[in-house]
Amino acid sequence: MSATALLSLERITKRFGGLTAVREVSVEVRAGDLLGIIGPNGAGKTTLFNVIAGYYRADEGRVVFDGHDVTGRPAHAIAGLGLTRTFQIVKPFGNLSVLDNVMIGALTRLASTREARAEAERVIAVCGLGPHAVARARALPLGLRKRLEVARALATRPRLLLLDEVMAGLNPTELGGMIDLVRRLHADGLTLIVIEHIMAAMMRLAQRIVMLHHGEKIAEGTPREIASDRRVIDAYLGEEFVLAEA
Amino acid sequence: MARALARHWGALVIFGAAALIPIVVRDAYFLDSLVLILLWGALSAAWNVAGGYAGQVSIGHASFFGIGAYSAALLGARWQQSPWLGMLVGIALSLAAGAAIGYLSNRLKGPYFALSTIAFSQVLLIVASRWRAFTSGSEGIPVPFRPGFATLGLGHVAWVYLALAVAVLYWGVQVWLEHSRFGYRLAGVREDEDAAQALGIPARRLKVIAVTASAALTSVCGTLWAQYVGFVDPFYVFSVDLSVRFALNTIIGGMGTALGPFLGSILITSLETYLRATLSGVKSGFTGIYLIVYGVVLILVVRFVPDGLAGVAGRLRARRARAHA
After folding, report:
1. Which of A22, A157, A137, A152 is nearest to B196 (CA)?
2. Any residues with CB less than 8 A from the CB of A81 and at least 6 apart, and which?
3. Which of A209, A210, B176, B307 could be stapled to A36 by a disulfide with Cβ–Cβ 3.0 to 4.6 Å?
4. What is the interface pTM, i.e. ipTM, of the complex?
5. Residue B195 near chain A (CB below 8 Å)
6. Mean pLDDT over residues A113-120, rounded?
7. Closest partner residue to B199 among A74, A112, A152, by Cβ?
């Protein structure tokens, strides 16, 4: 483990009964990285997130965040250290307003509701949710609910943010907006791990990409290296992608 | 200040009216209804802390009501102690019971949590009705009337103000829940536990705290009720009917709203009092018809105003705000 790693996954294995969802995956993320995770459905991407964020306990291996061994710690404790995540299937606080949703995130670091409200308003503006601040979360269309998911996590002022398919299901305009948002957050110094199926977005965003297949890490490298990796092409991208890129 | 008034005018009207009524009305029957409305309202507010604000819907809150009622009645009957001491003992026991239930049923959600609370109240019912040597069993315990504030032997007017004080206090607890850091985070837990944890909220701990506090608040009213009515019957104080009533008042009035439990109590308690008086006379043969009316009211509310009566007020306000915008 290098001294500068913000997060290191050391040979993580997670089994469900006879199925090994994640097998001996090791990944290092340094502060300021934007790491992409790709892989076909069922490759273990979300399972890996659940292990990192404390929703599942790893059967083997260690998760070290910022020098703390957080393996097996509860999710709220890990989030308290500054590692938070969004959910692939969004989980808004449906009956509350957008502002209240984000305020609850802000209250993780702030004791006063007044300060948390101001912070939430700031984050809402950054995420482009300003016009919807008073709307009930459950009334939002999917594109905005994905943004809310990001805004709420951001309000906790994380040092590492795990984004689980925040771009899936967005229309082209929304997708462009989300890519811009993630870029801006990264430019502001946030460290991110992003799961995404949309390769075009991933190629533009990520500095490094990890490819999972059947729970194993089969490739890691820059987007260009990944796109030309024979194993990745065979398992995931297909020949058409290579031709289109070329 | 003006904004607080604008937001809480409903509470001001209700509690203000309750404070003024004893000055002009001396009719014991009417004042009795008022005490019950306030007590049932406070009890529903106590239930709301767990059911409405934390999303832990209990159908066993009679457990804590009964603990409060029995604590004071037994301490008074067996050891001639003040009901105030009984109230404190009830609070302590309910805190312990609430924490235990909250902790043990922590992983249970929705109907499973509700079922576990029913089970607990039934266990207490069996203990209270069978342990004759200590609780007098199914005969129940009479609470003798001894005049004075220390013994809670009060007249109707004094009872109105005591019940009012408790009602306002519980209302204040709920308002605090709507504006405090704890309350916001608890709302997050209620809405989605996984998402709350991702934000660093210790969801399980918050739920246990809410259920425990709710239990203690319920117990206080159990003590007061027993002293007011003057008799503790295990089949009443530990009954599912009673637990359902706390939930029903709150659902009809509006779950997770500060005023809802009181609105529900006003509607249901006065309806019941009126129907019992007019329809359940021996001659009319309509005994128990108020239960049918209950059911109809509940169906209508759930069908047409699922947010409860307080929700209707909120919707009207939103419409007015939109019209102004």
Report:
1. A152
2. A65, A66, A68, A70
3. A209
4. 0.89
5. yes
6. 94
7. A152
Which tokens hold the place of A175?
A: 């997708």
Q: Tens of pLDDT along B112-142?
A: 888 989 999 999 988 888 888 778 877 778 8
Residues in chain A closer than 8 A to B188 (CB atoms): 93, 96, 104
**3-state SS, one letter per residue, for A54-104:** CCCCCCEEEEEECCEECCCCCHHHHHHCCEEECCCCCCCCCCCEHHHHHHH
State residue B311's pLDDT score. Answer: 78
Q: What is the DSSP string of chain A?
A: --TTEEEEEEEEEEEETTEEEEEEEEEEEETT-EEEEE-STTSSHHHHHHHHTTSS--SEEEEEETTEE-TT--HHHHHHTTEEE--SS----TTSBHHHHHHHHHTTT-S-HHHHHHHHHHHHHHTT-GGGTTSBGGGS-HHHHHHHHHHHHHTT--SEEEEESTTTT--HHHHHHHHHHHHHHHHTT-EEEEE-S-HHHHHHH-SEEEEEETTEEEEEE-HHHHHT-HHHIIIII-HHHHHHH-
Identify all chain B residues contacting A96, using CB atoms and an 8 Å cutoff.
187-188, 191
C-alpha–C-alpha distance, residues B122 and B135, integer Å: 16
Q: What is the mean pLDDT of residues B197-217?
A: 95
Output DSSP code: residue B255: T
